[in-house]
User: Which sequence fits this backbone?
């Protein structure tokens, strides 16, 4: 019978990847871009499982209980300001289903001691779920430094980049072993007031927060404002993000009944 260390190396954890609400052929649908799923499988060495966001918030705990970690992806939608106590209407597109269900998933995952990782919108969702607020860079004149022009092609949009400064002694510094990086930038919303329990791991132009980590959760909660899933093969810092996710998920691995019989 393999020992626990051998099993940890052999098994692949299941990582939930939140979906977004979309319209497909005139009907409401759920969607996740392939690049997120492929990054989980290839670089985190895990099994991606799409988690629909069009469901009752009460289902979140049941779902999290069957996962080893959770990934909150980026999206073209903006988080509705009502979620962080603002009376602003916000700017379209808005995804109410994801707004609501992501908050429930984050709280359920933290309660269940499961790792939570955020990318772009996911970073913002984590900050809001823990009591922080957001701002829209289009309303402050900073959008041009953080998002390519609207007419940019996809490659140009994700090639748009800027440098970031990495905080000493933070989780990001620990796994990238650098004090500065150049990262892609495809976002309009950004953290305004940082949630209690989060610490800044990196900042970009004009002090925009680019990475955060939780300080008092039973499992890692970590998020970046950029897109490490976009063609990460030649960027060691983006590969490191996925390796960290895979390691965190394996530490929380719960084998399904009978799974040990297949080892």
Assistant:
């Amino acid at each position: 019978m393999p020992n626990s260390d051998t099993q940890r190396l052999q098994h692949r954890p299941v990582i939930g990847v939140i979906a977004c609400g979309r319209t497909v052929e005139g009907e409401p649908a759920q969607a996740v871009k392939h690049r997120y799923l492929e990054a989980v499988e290839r670089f985190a060495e895990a099994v991606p499982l799409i988690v629909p966001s069009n469901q009752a918030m009460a289902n979140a705990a049941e779902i999290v209980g069957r996962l080893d970690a959770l990934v909150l992806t980026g999206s073209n939608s903006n988080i509705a300001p009502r979620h962080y106590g603002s009376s602003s209407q916000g700017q379209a597109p808005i995804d109410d289903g994801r707004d609501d269900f992501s908050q429930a998933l984050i709280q359920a995952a933290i309660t269940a001691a499961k790792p939570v990782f955020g990318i772009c919108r996911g970073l913002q969702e984590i900050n809001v779920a823990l009591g922080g607020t957001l701002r829209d860079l289009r309303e402050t004149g900073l959008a041009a430094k953080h998002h390519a022009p609207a007419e940019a092609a996809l490659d140009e949009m994700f090639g748009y980049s800027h440098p970031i400064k990495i905080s000493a002694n933070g989780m990001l510094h620990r796994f990238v072993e650098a004090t500065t990086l150049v990262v892609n930038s495809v976002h309009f919303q950004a953290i305004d007031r940082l949630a209690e329990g989060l610490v800044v791991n990196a900042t970009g132009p004009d002090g925009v927060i680019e990475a955060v980590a939780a300080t008092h959760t039973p499992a890692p909660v970590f998020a970046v404002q950029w897109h490490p899933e976009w063609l990460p093969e030649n960027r060691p810092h983006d590969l490191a993000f996925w390796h960290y996710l895979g390691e965190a998920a394996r530490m929380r691995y719960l084998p399904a009944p009978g799974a040990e019989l297949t080892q």
About this structure: Residues 107 and 129 are 7 Å apart (CA to CA). The radius of gyration is 18 Å. The chain has eight helices and 13 strands. The first helix runs from residue 4 to 10.
